[in-house]
Amino acid sequence: PGQAEMYAGLQELGVANGEDLKETLTNCTEPLKAIEQFQTENGVLLPSLQYALPFLDLHGTPRLEFHQSVFDELREKLLERVSAIALEGKVEERYKKLEDLLEKSFSLVKMPSIQPVVMCVMKHLPKVPEKKLKLVMADKDLYKACAVEVKRQIWQDNQALFGDEVSPLLKQYILEKENILFSNDISFLQNFFSPSPKTRRQGEVVQKLTQMIGKNVKLYDMVLQFLRTLFLRTRNVHYCTLRAELLMSLHDLEISEICTVDPCHKFTWCLDACIREKFVDNKRARELQGFLDGVKKGQEQVLGDLSMILCDPFAINTLALSTIRHLQDLVGQDTLPRESPDLLLLLRMLSLGQGAWDMIDSQVFKEPKMEAELITRFLPLLMSFVVDDHTFTVDQKLPSEEKGPIPYPSTIPEAFTKFLQENRIACEIGLYYILHITKQRNKNAFLRLLPALVETFSDLAFSDIFLHLLTGNLTLLSDEFALEEFCTSLFDGFFLTACSRKENVHRHVLRLLLHLHHKVAPAKLESLQKALEPTKQSGEAVKELHNQLSEKLELRKPSPAEVTETPSMELPLPTVPTPASR
Questions:
Q1: Which helix (H) or strand (E) holds 485?
Q2: Which of 73, 292, 310, 532 could link 353 by a cystine bridge, Cβ 3.0 to 4.6 Å?
Q3: How far is residue 134's CA from residue 562's CA, in Å, rounded to a whole number?
Q4: Domain shared by 204 and 336, yes or no
Q5: By 3-state DSSP, what share of the chain in percent is helix, strand and coil, each rounded to 5?
Q6: pLDDT tens across 239-269, in order?
Q7: Are 504 and 462 in contact (CB under 8 A)?
Q8: Is residue 315 part of a domain?
Q9: Tell me, what's the pLDDT at 571?
Q10: What would the pLDDT profile of 414-470 be if each residue is shown by its tens digit?
Q11: Domain check: are 174 and 63 in the same one?
Q12: What is the rounded distance in angstroms from the CA atom of residue 576 to the CA atom of residue 582?
């Protein structure tokens, strides 16, 4: 630090500093005497020290070192005392003491050695005087040095400044989510939805935001406002995840000041338990229904927040998985979807979640109307696919008669394709059904329904979350990649239809091939490598993935030496009788 900063503020308190000593020495006739006098006037005024200091001189200990250690010791004691004052006596008295102390010490706030004490006093004051806050805010270094408790007081009246602090964290959060979706590790065991809610809340961004908010409702509201605005601007559903994670992080810390005023708290808490189990059980379904039915007239605005909580991909994933499970149960019970209240509630919540953007955008807070055809036509259609699978399995086991085995149904009802194109909820459930059959390694059903994915509502089949899950589940069908028919249906019939217009699809296909290239027939692999070559418009990620794939394929090519040796391997081998056949 510069000389001026080192002594900043001492003069105002009538304490001599380096400048005073310089002036004294410049204007005196006997410098040594002047120095001695300056030391006497400004040293530690303890009579016993007069004899101890010459003793230290004999040991070669510089006076600076002695004074520095005394200073450090006193500062530590002072810091301890300030923290103790903040906890003792009556509230008004303790804060009065701290305010007086701040008044006396604030002029030294720029002096590096004293600054920690001033900052400590401010940290313990629930309300730092406005004038002092403005001085801190105006000085970049002071603002940086002050505790988060003081910054909260500055932020709550300066939304723009708070936004500048929060913005990089939100960018980091979105980037982290996208990195997981595009990760090169593809597995059906570990995917985007694997971490538990509690583990996710330990993430750096959620923890930092939680700390920045503290117990301050005003700051919490500001963050929620930022999230709503960004969600509206970008339609990025990861902001909805952060909305729920932040609330639950404050819930974990039992910050009742915020949790009790957020009308979504209990609903989110209940849904969080469902997400943890990846299933909505009957008891929790009734609780969630109670919250939705309990929205009173005049309080409909809460639906906007609830819809954002339900739009979180982790919530959608749980609701969709539960829906598929319910449909399978209904097949076994010979029951129609319209007769299952639990299923209707799942659809109601899916509908509310999927309608979040429209509701917040239009500011019309009412639950979206459920289309009757979804329940009376689409879901029974899905159930008929489940029945087709059961029938086919049973047929395979029956002794085949002259007419030969019954082929697997290959056509898709036109209504199914139409629903996937025109109805958002039907599309979401349809996609989850396809993930479900892929996970069951049901190749027949997968190839039958795959053509319906080329055109879906708002291109949902080409969204990152679906493709991330699909590529993971396809690893279970890895042996099928050797078959021309399977690869043609999957790549030419589905992926490549969108690669040129959607960079993310290009990335997901390359991720999949990097993982499964050794399973694909060489000729097919070569044509895919060509088809997936980056264009001038392609981003760095696509180029990098394509390079990685090309390197892997280069390593797989047999060396010239191996090529010439291969024919010798094809000579008929002499038959050696095994011991058993003798």
A1: helix 484-487
A2: 310
A3: 77
A4: no
A5: 75, 0, 25
A6: 999 999 999 999 999 999 999 999 999 999 9
A7: yes
A8: yes
A9: 45
A10: 999 999 999 999 999 999 999 999 999 999 999 999 999 999 999 999 999 999 999
A11: no
A12: 10
Closest alpha carbon to 525 in 535, 514, 536: 514
Tell me the C-alpha distance between 292 and 269, whole Å.
Answer: 14
Residue 355 to residue 310: CA distance in whole angstroms: 9
Q: Which residue type does 408 have?
A: Y
How many Å from the N-terminal Cα to the C-terminal Cα in the chain? 95
Nearest of 474, 514, 468, 503 to residue 490 by alpha carbon:
474
Is residue 555 a part of any domain in this protein? no
Specify whether the CB–CB gap between 529 and 549 falls below 8 A: yes
3 state DSSP class of 240: helix
Is residue 275 within 8 A of residue 314, CB to CB? The reply is: yes
Does residue 219 sit in the same domain as residue 291?
Answer: no
Looking at the structure, do residues 510 and 448 belong to the same domain, yes or no?
yes
The pLDDT value given to residue 143: 85
- Domain match, 114 and 163 both: no
C-beta of residue 438 within 8 angstroms of C-beta of residue 446: yes
Specify whether the backbone of 299 is left (phi greater than 0), alpha (psi in -120 to 50) or beta.
alpha
Residue with tokens 């349809």: 430
Half-sphere exposure of 496 (CA within 13 A, CB side): 16
Number of domains, the chain:
4
Q: For the packed helices 313-333 and 238-252, what is the interaxial angle rounded to 10 degrees?
A: 100
The C-alpha atoms of residue 284 and residue 266 are separated, in whole angstroms, by: 12
Contact of 134 with 109, CB cutoff 8 Å: no
* Alpha carbon distance 474, 479 (integer Å): 10
φ, ψ of residue 451 to 5 degrees: the values are -60, -25
Domain that holds residue 458: 374-394+412-533+541-548
User: Is-contact 342 319, C-beta < 8 A?
Assistant: no
Task: Say if 32 falls within a structural domain.
Answer: no
Q: At what angle do helices 18-26 and 31-42 cross, to 10 degrees?
A: 150
Is residue 40 within a helix (H) or strand (E), and if so which, with residue range?
helix 31-42
Three-state DSSP at 398 gives: coil
Q: What is the pLDDT of residue 208?
A: 96
Residue 268 is predicted with a pLDDT of 97
CB 268 within 8 A of CB 243: no
Angle among Cα 208, 464, 446 to the nearest 5 degrees reads 140
Enter the tokens of residue 185. 């590790």
pLDDT for the residue 1: 45
User: Tokens in use for 411?
Assistant: 């056509």
Helices 464-474, 424-439: axis angle to 10 degrees equals: 20
On whether both 149 and 217 belong to a single domain, the answer is no
**Both tokens assigned to 564:** 């010439």
Q: Is the pTM of this model over 0.70?
A: yes
User: How many whole angstroms separate alpha carbon 292 and alpha carbon 217?
Assistant: 24
567 is a domain residue = no
